[in-house]
Structures are given as structure tokens and as C-alpha cells.
TrEMBL record:
Name of the protein in question: GTP cyclohydrolase 1
UniProt EC number: 3.5.4.16
Any matching Pfam family: GTP_cyclohydroI
GO molecular function: GTP binding; GTP cyclohydrolase I activity; zinc ion binding
Matches recorded under HAMAP family: FolE (MF_00223)
Leader peptide range in chain numbering: none
Keywords of the record: GTP-binding, Hydrolase, Metal-binding, Nucleotide-binding, One-carbon metabolism, Zinc
Pathway, per record: Cofactor biosynthesis; 7,8-dihydroneopterin triphosphate biosynthesis; 7,8-dihydroneopterin triphosphate from GTP: step 1/1
The keyword Zinc appears for this protein: yes
Native source species: Kaistella treverensis
Length: 221
């Protein structure tokens, strides 16, 4: 029988999770949009922009709506994906790997994009999920101000909870525009993070099989 999994609210707590205030969800999205619009209008004026110009006058509202409804939509609890699991009736006991899942997030230090790919794997403990749900998990946690290390852990934790197994792994390879377009301006560098749990951590053969599938032959201890 299918089972609907709703992620616990504790995904917002703990040192490894997104730092939010206790009253983070008190305001409705429309209220947040209105406040951000006002503040962003002040930012643009402070920068010296002419806010009566036709090209600029609606930018604060566009930015506010984009922040709340799109690029930071992972901060809205109502956007948490509901994950349906299915009984593994075909008794598939090997790892399932989904590669090259698009990661589009924002660095919480400079609010500049993090762009890359996630490679996710799990070994069924009796339950499986639809493939697109893995993409939805990655997308949901990406749509927050993030650090890549935390994002990698959040994806693994969410899949462990949904599937009832410790055997989950995630590697993220991404470029950080806070490095590429400001500061050191190193356009060639990228960042790789990995979170390995269960057999992916304890069994070298399982770990190497995963790395082989995703095309990453680096040794991860």
C-alpha cells in the first residue's frame, strides 16, 4: 500500500538545518512580499537609482515576489513535497542512483547563486519512491539561503526519513557565484560535498560502486 510521508517540522531545527527564528512562519506570504518590496525599494533608492523610471519602478515588487514564491520557496512549509512511498514488490535490492539533478540555490553569505548538480542514491529497505520525488526533495531544500554542506545533509536526511533506511548518499558538485563573480573572482573553481550514510559509508564496495555510477572516482572517507 502506498504511504504518504510528510516531512517533520524538525527539518527547520538543529545546527545542521536552516537557521530560522521561532516566529518564522507567523507572516503570510503576501505580508512578506509587501515588507520585502518596501525594503528593496529603499535599497535601490540608497544606491542612487531613480525609482520613478519606468524600467525600475516595479522592480521591488518583482524581486519580493521572486524571493518569497520562487527562489526562496523552500522557506514556506506549505511547499514541502508530500512523498508517496511504494512497497518494493519487485524485490529490487541494489542501489538506485539518480544523477545530474539540477541544483539552483543561493549562498546565504552573499545571496548569490549556487549552480550545480546533485547525484543521489539509496538502497531500498522495503520501500521505494517515484523518481521525480527525489528531484522535488533536492529542489525544495535548494530553494533557501544555503551552504552547500547543509544542503547535502538535508537531502540525505529527508530521504532517510521518507524511505526508512540509513542507506542513502548524495554528492553535490556546484559553482558558487560568490567566488566566481566577486572577491577572488575565480571562474574555474567548483565545490564538491558528499554525505554518505549506512552502507555507503561503512561498505567500501558500495561506496565505490556509487562513485563509479556518478563518474566520481575520488576517494571519500
Amino acid at each position: 500500500m502506498d504511504q504518504d510521508i510528510d516531512f517533520d517540522d524538525d527539518v527547520f531545527t538543529g545546527k545542521e538545518h536552516t537557521p530560522l527564528r521561532a516566529n518564522a512562519f507567523d507572516k503570510l506570504p503576501a505580508e512578506k512580499i509587501q515588507l520585502i518590496q518596501q525594503h528593496f525599494h529603499e535599497i535601490m533608492e540608497t544606491l542612487g537609482l531613480d525609482m520613478t523610471d519606468d524600467s525600475l519602478k516595479d522592480s521591488p515588487r518583482r524581486v519580493a515576489k521572486m524571493y518569497v514564491n520562487e527562489i526562496f520557496g523552500g522557506l514556506l512549509p506549505e511547499n514541502k513535497p508530500r512523498i508517496s512511498t511504494f512497497s518494493n514488490k519487485y524485490k529490487y535490492r541494489q542501489m538506485l542512483v539518480e544523477k545530474d539533478i539540477t541544483v539552483y540555490s543561493f549562498c546565504e553569505h552573499h545571496f548569490l547563486p549556487i549552480i550545480g548538480k546533485a547525484h543521489v542514491a539509496y538502497i531500498s529497505n522495503g520501500e521505494v519512491i517515484g523518481l521525480s520525488k527525489i528531484n522535488r526533495i533536492v529542489d525544495y531544500y535548494s530553494k533557501r539561503p544555503q551552504v552547500q554542506e547543509r544542503l547535502t545533509m538535508q537531502i540525505v536526511d529527508a530521504l532517510k526519513d521518507a524511505l526508512g533506511t540509513k542507506d542513502v548518499a548524495c554528492i553535490i558538485e556546484a559553482k558558487h557565484l560568490c567566488v566566481n563573480c566577486r572577491g577572488i573572482k575565480d571562474t574555474a573553481s567548483s565545490t564538491t560535498t558528499a554525505e554518505l550514510s549506512g552502507l555507503f559509508r561503512t561498505n567500501p564496495i558500495t561506496r565505490q560502486e556509487f562513485l563509479h555510477y556518478v563518474g566520481n572516482h575520488a576517494k571519500l572517507d
